[in-house]
Amino acid sequence: MAADGQTGVLDTAWGQIPHSREASTGIGSFTRSRVERIISLVAGAFGSLVLGIQAFLTALGPSDELPGWHEALMAAVFGSLAVMVLACVIGRGVRVAAGAFALIYVLALAAWPIATAGIEPRSVDEPWIWYLVNIAALAAVLAFPLPLQICWTILAPVLFGLVRLMQGGFASEYWIAVGLDVSFALILGGVILTLGWLFRSIAANVDGTRARAVSSYARAAAADAAEQERVAVAALMHDSVLAALIAAERATTPRERSLAATMAREALTRLANTEHDAHEGPDEPSDADTLATDIEAAARELGVDVDVQREISPDSSQIPGRVARALVLAATQAIANALQHAGGAGLGVALRSSADRVRIEVHDAGEGFDLDAVPDDRLGIRASIVARVAAVGGQADLETGPQGTVVRLTWWETAA
Asked: Which pTM does this prediction carry?
């Protein structure tokens, strides 16, 4: 729920920009995902398949391994390679399959001295396992982070050179051939590693630029929507107030005067609910701790430092943005009332959050008041607290007396 809320603004803005159907998979990984697909399909599938066939045909000829080792090594190496090629073709499980092949190949190289113990090499020509050394580097590029990619690109050729020299008894005629093989493998592996890093870096930069552009567009769209909303609210308030004034001017009977007062009261209620329209925006979820922090910030704007006491259970759910804003504004109004009418005596705020409920309590140690005696045109409690919380499906309760006043704001998730 939280992840969906965090990307809601960008997804909305991205949906307003003309783009192809293929581009709708996401704004943060559009280019990177396609670069990964190209690397896995072209290099991981076709490149590995060509070199794998070459190595397999070579392995079908005379071998240097002991009886039983040849078949076992071929099954392990070529079996894992076939799985990697298949994963690259279908685009599923590429990292796991490539990582498995890279690990199995290194283990096969480590076992090579045991598999060829006591057998004189037939020639200085490369054995079949040599043709897969750069595929191991490619598999590391597909599966591992950059430090391990570098490690594997160096480890596989160097390990091959070591085991090949061990097989030849470190005879002088093997040094030049093995040195050339290792050098070639290191150079080609370095090229593969560099190209993979380069393509991914370019893709990440393109995606980052796109995300920043869409984020900028989202902010501009939100500002424009807020301005349009302010214009609409201003027009609505103008019409509401004008209609109330006309009704009051034309009222001649108690009934007409009562209706005019009701119209004026509704206009003032709408005004109270739009006094903080600059904070309106996407309905991004908020957690209980952020809600408490926002209340503390709002209290500081009123000139008082309030430390909100928090009781937040680990399974507390996210709070919709419109609900969080209403609760913060209602709690702020309750704090303002306590400062105005109780002088801030005994002022305290507590927030309790559970899996399906959020409760905010604002209490003071003032002399209390009679709610029924509050004039109808005083909307600090009726509109800014009770009506505001009720509008988002919550409930506001007041307890007041000589010992002080307690305002309880409660919202249930099922009420959303």
From this structure: 0.47
